[in-house]
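Fold sample X.
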Amino acid sequence: MLNVQVDGEWKQFPKGTRLIDACMKSGSYVPHYCYHPKLSTPGNCRMCLVEMGMPKMTPDRKPILGPDGRPEIGWSPRPAISCATEVSEGMAVRTASPLVEECRKGVMEFLLINHPLDCPICDQAGECRLQEFSVEYGKSDSRFVEEKVKKPKRQDIGPRIVLDDERCIMCSRCIRFMQEVAKDDVLGFVNRGSYTTVTVYPGRTLDNNYSLNTVDICPVGALTSKDFRFSMRVWFLRETKSIDVNCGLGTNILIGSRENTIYRITPRENEAVNSCWMPDSHRLNFHYVNSPERLTEPTVKGRTSTTWKEAVQAAADLIKKDPATTAIIASARMTNEELFLTRRFAQAAGVEKFDVLPRPQKGDGFLISEDGNPNTSGAKLLGLATGKLSEIAAGVASGSIKTLVVLGEDATDCGISEADLAKLDALVATGILGTKTTAAAKVVLPTASWAEKRGSMINIKGRLQRLNQAIPSPGKARDDWEVLRDLTQAVGGSNGIYTIDEVFKQLAAEVAPLNGLTLSKIGDLGVQLTLPS
């Protein structure tokens, strides 16, 4: 550990710590553009200049100590870039001295020389570092009287990205991300001086599945997402911390929504899961949540209209007829709470045949896992992953299974044909969108999507993480746990449960790895569990 003075206070930091990180950890914010904690340091924007000093030394190279017993500092007349400087023993730094303030104003003036003054129409407005720092360090007028350099606008450089080079400040974050993290060296600078622009290499496009991370880390409005561009002002969005459900990793995310509609999803930093990155395929796979084709009303075949109470009772009557010929197909996309209540429901109904649909897929060795289900670990822990899916499919085909309950899945994905579904005496289905299963079902119970509910899941690394509700469910769709609770009461009777927190409390009491936990104790970053092998 090295002793470093930050704005008059002595702190200790490990050897190798970058000076900008030391300042940040000490509570002294240092404005910056090119610096990013997950990327290499080019030191080219010069916005992070600070005043630096080292201990005064005697002729025999011993530090001169002041009245407080600490070294006296000799300050350098030249500022230093804090992002490319590592701390050393006895180093001192000033982050807000007159010299530093003047340097930042000079850097900001140069950055704005050729930058267009179009903040009101820029898609980055509201979360633009250039806009923010110009308020603090910029001038109200410009001394620049020459003609501005005009650079390209609205360049289509990939299937998901638009580039406005006139707004680029040459921080090189996008270039370094593609080289160092995405391992796809497709971006670079061309030309020199004021005419420098960022672009894709000849014959290439920015089509990597991690390309939208460059939009996240771009400090200005140079790189924008085609999907989100001009669709909503960011200051209108409500951000909800949650997790991605497209694969078993459970990337931490922020859901940006307004008036019951999701507009974008961005990654949320969690060193134990996804660092601060996210694949494009996952972040864009949310539009079905806003689909006008969502199931919004409970239905019972043969009835023109029905209430939730009638639909649940109709489903329970079908299930209770013969538990020995009934099977349940659950989903490893369900939360732990829902899987827990599914197990209770099966016990109350006397159903012994149940399983979840596995989703093996090709991972990318980075943030897309080989498991396409977000909660396979939870399904295994709660005993719902039994390996009986093929047996259930064969039973439906042979006629030995006469009643099938399908929770959040399409039975045709489970090896059961539409013709076999037609053979069933009774088919009960839950879900958010119409499928071949809901079309054949006698009772359909509409439920909430992952963005519309609270709950927990366990990722492939055994980390317990929390879903949070970003928007309400459409129409009369209800939370899955409420539907399962009502079905359990209807088929066998049970005590009422009124909140998802109560469900988790009962779950934690019965499942050893969750003992002592609550939904609130999971926190924003999750809890690492020790699961049985």
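Fold sample Y, listed below.
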Amino acid sequence: MKLQPLPRILTLVMAGLVASAAQAQPADAFAVNVEVDASRTLGELKPIWRFFGADEPNYATMKDGRKLMKHLGDLRPGNVYFRAHNLLNTGDGTPAFKWGSTNAYTEDRDGKPVYDWTVNDRIIDSYLERGVRPYLQIGFMPQALSSAKPGTPYQHSWRPGFAYDLIAGGWNAPPKDYAKWAELVFQWTQHCVQRYGREEVLRWYFEVWNEPNGPAYWTGTQDEFNKLHDHAIDAVRRALPGARVGGPDVAGSGGAFMDAFLKHVVSGKNHATGQTGTPTDFLAFHAKGSPRFVDGRVRMNMSPQLGGIAKGFEKIAAVPELKNKPIVIGENDPEGCAACPGPQNAYRNGTMYSSYTAASYKRIWQLAERHQVNLEGALTWAFTFEDQPWFAGYRQLATNGVDLPVLNVFRMYAKLGPTQLRATSDAEVALDDIIANGVRGRPDVGVLATRAPDGKLAVMTWHYHDDDASGPDAAVSLKLAGLGRQATRAVTQWRVDKAHANAFTAWQAMGSPQAPDAKQYAQLEAASVMAPAALPALAVADGSATLSFTLPRQGVTLLVIE
């Protein structure tokens, strides 16, 4: 079968989709009234979205990883952070699913440490050269330091389809020697200061391990983890006084493990110093949703993710010494395994993922306000999987170097201003309703509005439902107030939906080729781009104006008003 005519077909299909989107609102569209008052502010809207991460650290130095890292850095240069597992693992740096290595620590025949920062430097260089800074995870355990039982394989052989608990290995054990563990962390931190400079490294985050409250990532006891944590934090601070340190990046809100950890860092005896408490500049836990495959389609579930965030906030807010500390939700996702396949995860390539992301982040901001906590970040655990099939269905931000629709939602967030404005939608599902029931009845057509220091207004709307099924468009009537005396305002629209900023639908229109040629690749790249559309100038009368537009199901729109 010849592929040459397909680009022409693709062009016609996409042109028809764009043209239909610009026509009058469909007859079966339902009405939605959105109001934004530019004169009423709600306070600061922190850019919590600027954190990302992945299991596989070595992808950051590969061709598609470098390209995607640049796209992340471009969102907000110097203020985007990346977290990766496996940065201290023993190995030759060859990546695999849920694995990576740097060979940072080995021992000679006499048991003396041998440090080699070559691979770690290459990874961190890749971040910094592209405007991204490390959220530096200290772990996992080098083979020479692992206390795993003799005969335990060091590297796991997990692959998609295997049971999740098969990721265990010698890498997740406590150290045989805590003094050597501390010296490793000290030497690494000292090296980073020497290579990158004190002022640069002071801007990083340092945290220890990942999800120590479960057997997949930690085979020791709670007290052994506290000891591991104390020695690592003390080592970082000895090498760099004032370094930003925290943790523990527990799975979920952490349960009794997190309660004990919070008590330990406040009033427990420090295993490294013998003093009371452990320096803590930020606290971190994880939150995941739970999609299922129901009646032949994906059904998302934001409820456990938001409920877990609420519990995590409650735990931290209940400790007087910690309630004002910055919080990073160190993994914040629709479900728990980026590399795991399955029909319930078929939301990832298209607009289900992007609309879920838009709908969930507003609720996270709302929960932070409700619990009066200092939320600094909500980290998306998604990057890319190098040299895998096109649109393979992993939780990622790009496939083979082509951005997926979800990444464009983060580009929308990057265009928001720092001041949140009062905005309401009569079709927005209430926070408590989503926590209790998800979005199973009427769709969630929500709104978020901001103002920038230069006066630009940004109005973001989304049309989300838990069920990955077709449905009528939303006919949105946007009423703007508090615009001042200016007679007209320029309006730019950015869209992510089935017809816009969507390489997945373009690839499907090509016939889903697994080996696109150079021309097709260029077309897929072009289809992934979120292009601005200039709308007719907004006429302002008495400080008010109205604007109408169609918002397709699973669509996200950003209006920037000059």
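Sample Y note: The mean pLDDT is 94.
Also: Residues 72 and 80 are 7 Å apart (CA to CA).
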